[in-house]
Amino acid sequence: xxxxxxxxxTPAAELDAAMGRAAAARQAQLTKPPxxxxxxxxxxxxxxxxQGRERPSVERVRICVFAADNGVVEEGVSAFxxxxxxxxxxxxxxxxxxISVLALALxxxxxxxxxxxxxxxxxxxxxxxxxxxxxxxxxxRGPAMTDAQCDQALAQGRAAALRAIDAGAELxxxxxxxxxxxxxxxxxxxxxLEQPAAALVGPGTGLDSAGVKHKQRVVARxxxxxxxxxxxxxxxxxxxxxxxxxxxxxxxxxAALAGAYVACAQRRLPVLLDGFIxxxxxxVAVRLCPGxxxxxxxxxxxxxxxxxxxxxxxxxxxxxxxxxxxxxxxGAATAVPLLRLACRLHGDMATFAEAGVKGQAPLSAPQ
Length: 367
What we know:
Belongs to the CobT family. The chain is of the alpha/beta class.
């Protein structure tokens, strides 16, 4: 890797085990049967260890949406043209997209980062211009990114995470917008998990069965191209294999998400993952920085078929299953109220001593 991106291999921070134990001790004294709140208790304890405080909070949420086009749309893998990427970013900036509505409802900060759209985007005060190129190249015919472009995208993700930390965020959500990005994400996941295209390629923006089969063929061709290129080129001793896969088959948005997740793990900021694309980026992040997995929470089970395999690889159990597949960070945003409730229950419920209620008595056999 270049000197500017060696940071991705810096180890993740360790969870605060002592604070996790303190939170568990408090949880055991709350006025309820042990385990009665199910996974809400687990979430609160995870967040306590992540944030290093007995009573965690996720009131300050930062949502960062990375936008980029993908050259693979030339292969007819999407139901929408690339111009929609730019149009949807403008819709987000105007407050009309799903993630915009959710962010407003949650009183969450939202940042839109343009990494490169095929259709030029007019300057907008709500959109940060971080253009790398007018979208990635066609991954079916050659590498999606140069190594330098991939490193730039990773670094843009890191910069976004650091801005969130500087703003006092207690939770980071990464979103994406880019026509063709389910194709790039599926290709990356196939390569990292050593799975065939049919195992991970889905309808994306709404392809019919014939469209999905065509998309699978395109990804299969890209995987074969990547395999031959990897065999023909000696591995770069300074570049981790996951970064090579990312550059060859990914997109700017996937790379930026991966960079953001690594930086969050290094700087102790909990991440709430969205769906398929977000989780593929998380898989890249974990392969680059294994400890990053400790800093991830899983919001929902995407209706995109490949998500289940990626979740399995990450060891993630989602909080919700609403058959969502929109992207943008929308599934993660939908799960924020659950995290907030988990924190409020853990922090605000009375203990047995505070309420003057006798604790659970030891069970004994009936007389």
